Amino acid sequence: MSSFDVIVIGGGAAGCMAALSAAASGVSVLLMERNSKIGRKLYITGKGRCNVTNRCSVQECLSNIPHNARFLTSAMTRFPPEEAVAFFEGLGVPLKTERGSRVFPQSDRAADVIDALLRALRKSRVELVQDRASALEIQDGAVTGVTGEKGRHYACRAVILATGGVSYPGTGSTGDGYALARSAGHTIQPPKGSLVPWEAAGCAELQGLSLKNVELTVRDSRKKVLFREQGELLFTHFGLSGPLVLSASAHTRDFEKERYTAVIDLKPALDEETLDRRLVRELTEGANRDLRHVVETMEPRSLVPVLLERAGLTGGEKANAVTRAQRRSLLEGIKGLTFPITGPRPVEEAIVTAGGVTVREVSPGDMASKKTRGLYLAGELLDVDAYTGGFNLQIAWATGRAAGLGAGAFCREERCAYEV
Question: How far apart are CA 302 and CA 206, in angstroms?
């Protein structure tokens, strides 16, 4: 049986940071990862570029965490975004800041971040083993070790669970940590997709159409605006996706009780009066042309039949025959193309998982379990998640560091008590 001070289960962002932080405390660390390589999910973050963090203040970061942000205040304050930037640059990864204060490697390669973490783990003498944790070994309310998938036993003083959620299961995030945490007495909030595409009615005929510089507004059944932002979105065979939709999806989580509507302003830079003047000009200049051809000068061709149908027009009308009321209907469609959202895509397609271990059962300062002595939890396994922009990885770094330092301190105290 192998014996370590700390065993970290999960070689993702939070797990790697936890292992490095624990090792820096001067304790022996084993990192268990079921995949042949660490950081599988990091490879696909930021479209393969790895949005490391967001260069903003702690308060700004917390304001981008819609659920249980208060729980993260301590960990985020101790390891704010500026510390994350310094940490990775200290590992030899030059960073750059882009729109929205998003931070990426200068190389635009997620692999550079993963390679730097792997070098740091080896330099810190963290032992890596490819094995899947099947059970926590617990005696008298304290964790004593981990059993691997093939029956191998690993003894330890502390365990850090950093197995992630259930999104992108191909990267290894299959929900293993929920069962392990539950076996240690923890309550699991049902996992749901966060930053996930929507299924929406009336989108199939627009499949493949990508729109840039549009404004997306999301309203609930009471017409309350839940989200409004400009950017890019994509029509798919099932509904809506793209950066705007992923950001907005964090505001639409109660499909069991609520109905949501997506409203797209195709010309957000033009108010209605200005857009109407442009419509009049286009109709006048193309007076003898079919209406569909006039509208195609303003909107993507595949979108034109949808706009015309919703305005009660065929497109075969001559531009000079369009009435003021018909022009108004067309304008309303351009400024407010509406799609009922029928639900989110499966959680497996989400970028991150909402839900997980109930945070009231975890100490916010060091991520220690309040249920089992010597157990710590970090990252996406916890019931916390954020909007897009590097905030979810910042949560992983901050909670991973807190858990690693906490577990390291715990093991040193245990050693002293044993020696006495």
Answer: 7
